[in-house]
Amino acid sequence: MKRNAESQKSVKSRSRRKGVLAEAKGFRGGRGRLYRIATEAVDRAHKFAYRDRKAKKRVYRSLWIARINAAVRAHALTYSQFISGLTKANVAMDRKALAKLAVTDPQGFSKIVEIAKGKLA
Questions:
Q1: Could you tell me the pTM of the whole model?
Q2: 25 C-beta neighbours (distance < 10 Å), count
Q3: Domain coordinates of the chain in residue numbers?
Q4: Topology of domain 11-120, per CATH?
Q5: CA 19 centroid distance within chain
Q6: What would the pLDDT profile of 93-110 be if each residue is shown by its tens digit?
Q7: Alpha-carbon distance 14 to 75, whole Å?
Q8: Up-side HSE of residue 47: CA atoms within 13 Å toward CB?
Q9: How far apart are CA 68 and CA 27, in angstroms?
Q10: How far apart are CA 42 and CA 80, in angstroms?
Q11: Among 111, 106, 69, which Cα is nearest to 89's?
Q12: CA-CA distances (angstroms) from residue 26 to 38, 42, 44, 50?
């Protein structure tokens, strides 16, 4: 005797369990093998992944600021003075581009520093 498709939930639930256990692959002990524990571990991993995607942006911004600050101090300015000079000079470069320029092209960066210095005086 066959059942209705609506009442047979084994296909859907099995695929859901397989998906959770596939995501938990590599986890130690029961966290990678037992469904109930694996769901908690995977949910927790998703929570950390979401949080750390946001934190990653903050970490990179602070890295760029540190690099810009180090490069600007060689020109007898502080980071805040440099950024203030850039805003007064209407130079619209983001911190990522400024940090990359400071590392890869110090001469080009020094020209930008001179523009910022000119607006501070």
A1: 0.78
A2: 9
A3: 11-120
A4: c-terminal domain of poly(a) binding protein (1.10.1900)
A5: 26
A6: 999 999 999 999 999 999
A7: 64
A8: 6
A9: 40
A10: 43
A11: 111
A12: 11, 11, 15, 20
